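Retry 2 of 3 after timeout on previous attempt. Resubmitting structure tokens to design endpoint.
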């Protein structure tokens, strides 16, 4: 941005666009940051008297980088493509590995990397990725992307390992006991230690 385009109204437009990219309403963003909806309205409209400290919290929540900081490329589309290709090839062993890699990289980046829903024919993996995205958002205290909030729980229990080899009832009980709440809520069952943690 050159200095003539760096205005409060230009910043407000960028904030609104980023919020919409996340699929958030003004009220949802306000709740995530801990401010009033009116503050978000004022910020997006370029009101010059908005608190700088709170504005910075909004920018951070929406994933804006500090000026001069090296910005990591958005890998969401690449990750979604990897899942799509792997599942189309029915390589469930590698797909399970991708789940751990997605979790680890998202945690390392401090937010879920899948901002848009991946186009997957395999509904179990779609629900599992939504659950995992919610888990990452809870662990990193970041915004849950809109697509992951909208995914409904699976009608059948999802044990991704079942796609590779049959999982016995005793093992399923152990998995259920060690599954994080965000996954349980969508009827997805995976032990937290199977997910990468930092």
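Retry 2 succeeded. Sequence:
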């Amino acid at each position: 941005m050159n200095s003539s385009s760096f205005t409060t109204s230009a910043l407000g437009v960028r904030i609104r666009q980023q919020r919409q990219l996340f699929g958030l309403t003004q009220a949802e963003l306000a709740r995530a940051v801990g401010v009033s909806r009116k503050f978000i309205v004022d910020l997006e409209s370029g009101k010059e008297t908005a608190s700088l400290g709170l504005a910075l919290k909004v920018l951070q929540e929406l994933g804006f980088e500090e000026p001069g900081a090296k910005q990591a490329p958005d890998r969401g589309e690449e990750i979604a493509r990897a899942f799509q290709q792997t599942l189309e090839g029915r390589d469930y062993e590698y797909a399970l590995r991708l789940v751990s890699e997605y979790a680890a990289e998202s945690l390392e980046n401090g937010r879920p990397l899948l901002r848009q829903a991946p186009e997957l024919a395999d509904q179990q993996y779609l629900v599992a990725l939504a659950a995992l995205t919610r888990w990452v958002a809870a662990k990193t205290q970041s915004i849950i992307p809109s697509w992951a909030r909208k995914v409904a729980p699976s009608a059948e229990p999802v044990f991704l390992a079942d796609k590779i080899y049959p999982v016995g009832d005793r093992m399923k009980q152990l998995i259920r006991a060690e599954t994080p709440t965000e996954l349980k809520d969508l009827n997805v069952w995976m032990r937290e230690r199977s997910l990468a943690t930092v």
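Attempt log closed. The chain has ten helices and no strands.
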